Amino acid sequence: MDGSYEFLADLRRLLGVYRWFEQSLYLLNAGIIASLIYIAALFLGIPAFFKFYWQDSFFAAAPAIFSLILGLLGAKLLGQWSKSDLFAHLDESLSEETKAAYDNRDSDSVVMRSLAEDVKMRLSKVGAIDLINNRRLNFGDKSVPIFQAKAAAMVLLLTFAVIFSQSQAGEEISPQPFKSLTDLRDRAADLFGEEELPEEGASGQEISGEIYGKPSLAVLEEVNLELVLYPGSAAGFRSKETDPMDRLFQTSEPGVGVAVPTDLYIESLPPQHREIIKRYFENLATSF
Amino acid sequence: MRDDLINIYKDAPAIFETIREEIGKVVVGQKSVVEQILVGILAGGHTLLESNPGLGKTLLVKTIASTTGLNFSRIQCTPDLMPADITGTTLIEEVEGSKMFRFEQGPIFANIVLADEINRASPRTQSAMLEAMQEKQVTVGKNTYKLEAPFFVLATQNPIEMEGTFPLPEAQLDRFLLKVFIDYPSSEEEYEIMERYTGHAEPKVERVITRRELLSLQQLTRDVPISDDLKRAAIKGVISTRSWDGVEYGVSPRASIGLILASKARALLAGRDYVSRDDLEVMAYPILRHRIILSFDSERRGVTTDQVISDILKSI
Lengths: 288, 316
Hints:
The complex is a heterodimer of chains A (288) and B (316).
Chain A: H1 7-44, H2 46-53, H3 62-81, H4 92-103, H5 110-124, H6 128-134, E1 136-139, E2 142-145, H7 146-172, H8 181-192, E3 217-220, E4 223-226, H9 263-268, H10 271-287
Antiparallel strand pairs in A: 1-2, 3-4
Chain B: H1 2-26, H2 31-43, E1 46-50, H3 57-67, E2 72-76, H4 83-87, E3 88-95, E4 98-105, E5 112-116, H5 123-135, E6 137-140, E7 143-146, E8 152-157, H6 170-173, E9 176-181, H7 187-197, H8 211-223, H9 228-243, E10 247-249, H10 253-269, H11 277-288, E11 293-294, H12 296-300, H13 305-315
Parallel strand pairs in B: 1-8, 1-9, 2-5, 5-8
Antiparallel strand pairs in B: 3-4, 6-7, 10-11
């Protein structure tokens, strides 16, 4: 801003306030967009998925970080779409008057001097809070300042996101039909009904936490994988008298527990899921 | 000079108010028409007034001229009016026994010229007058005579569909800064007109502004600041007319200049020291309406230039 009119000093002061206001609005917009994206992700169970697979790693926070990045990008786009300037934050007549004065700041005439004095007088009465309160959201007859409305919206959304994520961790992620390993083991004992299975912890190894999904079927990336637990496979499993079954890779006598290699089964799985299915069985087997 | 301007600028609102009051003594109502004619005078442009007969066009112009200390002349246009009847003619004069040529100035040599019923004059005469309007000078033979500033032509015309008229060509219409429509008065205004003009007392107006003051006000008009946004909006509107649906020919750059000048004049008349968007929108009608040529199809559908201007204003 050049020129020698005094109103330019007031304009500079308001420009500082305006820049602060615009940056704050940018951050508020980013916060609101990020919160909305994160809440949507919570509904889809994405944060829980990341927590489950990458519990102790940086990836567990990936949904939150990704939401924040999208929020910042969205706020940037929104800022470009609804581009405004300082004049838009002044009331209509003052805005027109100031714009005319600013655009003609290099001219010197009787009318321009009169305008400059008038603008200086009016701008000196405009405070930071007036500038912030001038942009409003209208709801019928009522209106609220955009800044306050956005700040309130962001606080509400963040609060909702925190509460929702906590409730999801406690209830949604561990639904009732899913059983803990202990329950599974008890059910297995009932089925076999021959001997009491060792008490939990007696084996010296215990799986903490939960295993999700039905033990007979795993659905990974929309691929249904049958979880086959062959008789006699893995350590500690109890064999049961069964009818003879023909297998491509082995035969066994009824009533005789034989350790069966599961390599062929594991190899029949899609390569990207082999490791997790294998781990599942190992965990299941060692917990008995 | 600068002090004079400052003083006149300070007095401008009072001067305009007094002019309005004086005109109001004679002319009942028609406030927007009076305002637009004053805009034309401040902007230094010519004004074309159009209305049905008997609505006081001539009275209005005469009254406005009376409020200023300017030379005023009236030309009653008829089909047999010749160019020399307007511009003047060279006479042979005998002075001290020798014969000399002397130029006898026509009625165009005045500050305010009322060209009454201009569309009744022949195209040749119209052309002579409109040349003087544009160049602000008159050429007779080999001599060119400058017209004294300020120079305004306030022309009146009856609607062109009336018999015995020669419609002004589009190019000549462009030389008028404003085209103002005068509408019928309301019933209250008509009652007031009847009261005022059926008694013995004849309303008289006083001169309230001098030629020097008027020239200063014209200078101040050009100094009224306007924002770049409004200048761009004016240009956008003017350019839009050239490709607008239903418009055969859009307006010339003369319209952009006229629109800005007229908006500045309106701001000054309103006592404002900057041009507002409202000034631009209000002045767009009288500035553009006679310059837009509608297509045959638009005219067939009854579209008016004012409707086109409204649509253009909504788009800018």
